[in-house]
Amino acid sequence: MKIGVLTDIETASGYRMAGLEAVTAGPEEAARKLSEMVQSNQYALIAVDQRLLPDPNKAVERVMRGRSAPVLLSLPNLLDTFSGAGDAKAYMRALVRETMGFDIKL
Fold first, then answer.
1. DSSP class of 52
2. CA end-to-end span of the chain, whole Å?
3. What is the pTM for the complete model shown?
4. At residue 101, what are phi and psi to the nearest 5 degrees?
5. What is the rounded CA–CA span in Å between residue 98 and residue 31?
6. What's the rounded Cα separation, in Å, for the pair 102 and 51?
7. 75: which residues sit within 8 A by CB, 6+ positions away?
8. What would the pLDDT profile of 13-32 be if each residue is shown by its tens digit?
9. Distance between CA atoms of residues 74 and 17, nearest Å
């Protein structure tokens, strides 16, 4: 079983760089895509961007009935996390530089 992330297109590449499977969606299609991810039985954990679905458990309550997996985890959007607290691009560049040993241009 895998770990998946349901997020926006801008944030997906960061999760993919970390080795996670990222599914992209807009707010209007997020509940449908999350439902598809749950029904695929491929995921042990699905992290969901709070901007897309503030309450992912409620969005797929009917689909999750009787299931113990996947676990749904609501995550703040990366841009929301760093707004006002610093530059998100600079943070990601520093993180990649420390982890991988080289600089990237975002």
1. T
2. 31
3. 0.71
4. 85, 10
5. 36
6. 31
7. 5, 47, 48, 49, 50
8. 888 888 889 999 998 999 99
9. 20
- Sheet containing 2-7: which strands, arranged edge to edge? 21-24, 2-7, 43-49, 71-75
The one-character DSSP state at 15 is H
pLDDT digits (tens, 9 = 90+) for 48-74: 998 888 888 788 878 888 877 888 888
Tell me the three-class secondary structure of the chain, residue by residue: CEEEEEECHHHHHHHHHCCCEEEECCCCCHHHHHHHHHHCCCEEEEEEECCCCCCHHHHCHHHHCCCCCCEEEEECCHHHHHCCCCCHHHHHHHHHHHHHCCCCCC
- Work out whether the CA dihedral 86, 7, 25, 16 comes out positive or negative: positive
SS3 content of the chain, % helix, strand, coil (to 5): 40, 20, 35
Which is more confidently placed, 32 or 94? 32
For residue 105, what pLDDT band results from cuts at 50, 70 and 90?
A: low
